[in-house]
Design a protein that fits this description.
heterodimer; A: alpha/beta; Rossmann fold; Alpha-Beta Plaits; six-stranded mixed beta sheet; four-stranded antiparallel beta sheet; 10 helices; disordered C terminus; B: alpha/beta; 25% strand; globular
């Protein structure tokens, strides 16, 4: 399969922050590829390098067959970039923004209308409205239309769903899936683990490192232990009790339950006995499947020193 | 969590001209409860929160927050609540201690009390070495934890959190929720708004607003049962979708809904 992106050994430093540390990955044509990681992980820096807006200190980046440094002019014609911050002209209308982007890339709205029609049709009734007066969801649709209007082979979306409500987000993902029919490769970043499952492949990224690259289902399978979901009415007491139980390795709150791993994957009567001895009865324990976030936590534990003291710190002593 | 309501809303209506942003809301939130307040953009959440925090008057209905009436005693309400939003919380060019001093001072706390509680707080967070550092140089995770601690520094009855763990790493996120549990355990009510439904899963109860009304209010587990859904996200997408996607014309800044 053709590669849309081939990155090897990319590093980038800003004054005293090492934003990216020796990052390598490949994205195949036609994939939806997600970079999942918290703020400050290096996602935006990486995307700026891919979009030729930054030059890496080290490493080689090839995008759509062009070198991101020496071939940046050609490369730019082949990508659509939607930055995290809304960057359209607020004092131009919806229509004017779209026309402007089409013209800059030497095309017309008419020529590629079929590509954006699904997305643009939602905002077309407001084509005379200034971009700055649109709601968040509509701004996002306009920005996506503008990034697509020159029919790029690669679409780069930096945190497209941050601050967008769940309904608009699910619509947005629907649009991305439709774009696949047009043979457009999509890379996107998000701090939200639940969005990983919607990508073909994801890279988990933290402090400038890629922790893992795989299909989301495979990442879940990489979780190395048996995982248990523990529920009791008093969650905070439950977490602390589980951490003090000698057989516990990790105990982290997860929605309405606590996700726990036990030494040697052993879960038996003694857990209940222990919890009961500290006054926690009615505790329900069941084995559960690890999600992306469970695996992310596990990889973080391995890449950093065990957390000490403070509030929380899911770790129960060194193993 | 106790059964004492610390927020009590009866038939709250808020209109901006002909637009009804809050359409007959009634609900209670209890002392020490972690309450998730959800809704799509434009559903009327921000309008309601502005009323609950004494920044905006209800058009009609009765709103009691921390024992004070939102129409008649908004200043009393402000003294008894805390607020933390994701985007801005602390002054980056002040030190940790200066920020705490500033917020404590704004809430009228005595200097000696501020100092005493600052020491306790820095110890509890393992933050002592950061006391004289500027906020700007702190890692994001520490900033978030500190911002929360500052929001409850004056021991408010209720703290409002806007997407409290957006963008933080999974470990910090869990430490943050543990701080929330601990705070709720002390009887402070936690009122959370968020677009991220997996944050909602951590709440004791959640409400979902759509087009100015509360269309669902229950524990996450019960809502999932009622709507036969695997996650709160699924529940939300099922019931929070507005009838049409046409938003109302934007209001002027001052009277803006959301």
């Amino acid at each position: 399969m053709q590669k849309a992106i081939e990155a090897s050994g990319i590093s980038k430093k800003f004054v005293d922050t090492q934003a990216l540390k020796n990052i390598s990955f490949e994205v195949s044509e036609g994939e939806i590829f997600g970079f999942i990681g918290p703020d400050g992980a290096g996602k935006t820096t990486l995307f700026r390098i891919i979009a030729t807006l930054l030059i890496p200190d080290e490493g080689k980046m090839e995008v759509m067959g062009f070198d991101s440094v020496s071939g940046f002019k050609e490369l730019r014609k082949n990508i659509g970039y939607m930055p995290g911050r809304f960057s359209l002209y607020q004092d131009l209308s919806v229509e004017e923004n779209l026309n402007f982007y089409a013209t800059v890339f030497g095309t017309t709205v008419k020529e590629n209308y079929d590509l954006i029609s699904d997305i643009y049709s939602h905002i077309e009734p407001f084509r005379k409205r200034l971009a700055g007066k649109l709601s968040g969801g509509m701004k996002q649709k306009l920005a996506l239309s503008c990034a697509l209007i020159h029919k790029p082979g690669l679409l780069i979306l930096d945190e497209p769903t941050t601050g967008v409500d769940a309904v608009s987000r699910s619509e947005f993902w629907g649009m991305l899936r439709k774009l696949r029919q047009h043979n457009i490769t999509i890379i996107l970043s998000t701090p939200y683990m639940d969005e990983a499952m919607k990508c073909d492949r994801v890279a988990l990224i933290q402090e400038g490192h890629i922790l893992s690259i795989n299909q989301p289902e495979k990442i879940r399978e990489e979780f190395s232990r048996k995982l248990f979901s523990v529920k009791a009415p008093e969650k905070y007491r439950l977490i602390n009790a589980l951490r003090s139980y000698p057989g516990t390795i990790t105990a982290y709150p997860f929605g309405d339950s606590v996700h726990v791993t036990f030494k040697d994957d052993i879960y038996d009567r003694s857990v209940h006995d222990y919890l009961s001895s500290v006054g926690l009865d009615n505790v329900v324990i069941s084995e559960t499947r690890a999600g992306i976030e469970d695996r992310f936590l596990e990889l973080m534990e391995k890449s950093t020193a065990p957390l000490s003291g403070g509030v929380g710190g899911g770790y129960n002593k060194a193993e | 969590m106790t059964n004492n309501p610390v927020i009590s809303v009866k038939n709250l209506v808020k209109k901006f001209g002909s637009f009804t942003a809050n359409d007959d809301l009634s609900f209670e939130v209890y002392e020490g409860e972690i309450f998730g307040f959800l809704g799509a953009n434009g559903a009327g959440k921000t309008t309601a929160i502005r009323i609950l925090s004494g920044l905006s008057e209800p058009t009609s209905g009765e709103v009691i927050v921390a024992g004070y009436n939102a129409k008649k005693q908004p200043e009393q309400i402000k003294k008894n609540i805390g607020y933390m939003c994701q985007k801005f919380s602390l002054y980056p060019d002040l030190t940790v201690k200066e920020n705490i001093m500033l917020y404590g001072g704004i809430y009228g706390m005595k200097k000696a009390l501020i100092k005493e509680r600052t020491d306790l707080l820095l110890d509890r967070l393992n933050f002592r070495e950061y006391g004289d550092r500027m906020i700007a140089v702190l890692p994001l995770g520490l900033k978030q934890k500190l911002a929360f601690s500052v929001a409850v520094f004056h021991e408010p009855r209720i703290v409002f959190l806007d997407e409290p763990t957006g963008g933080v790493d999974p470990i910090t996120r869990r430490q943050f929720w543990e701080m929330i549990y601990e705070t709720a355990g002390r009887g402070i009510t936690i009122f959370v708004t968020t677009h991220y439904m997996d944050e909602a899963e951590y709440c004791d109860r959640i409400s979902i607003m759509s087009e100015g009304k509360i269309v669902a209010l229950d524990t996450p587990a019960d809502l999932k049962r009622q709507y036969n859904a695997a996650s709160v996200e699924e529940v939300f997408v099922k019931i929070a979708r507005p009838k049409d996607l046409i938003p109302p014309a934007p209001f002027s800044r001052r009277e803006k809904g959301e």
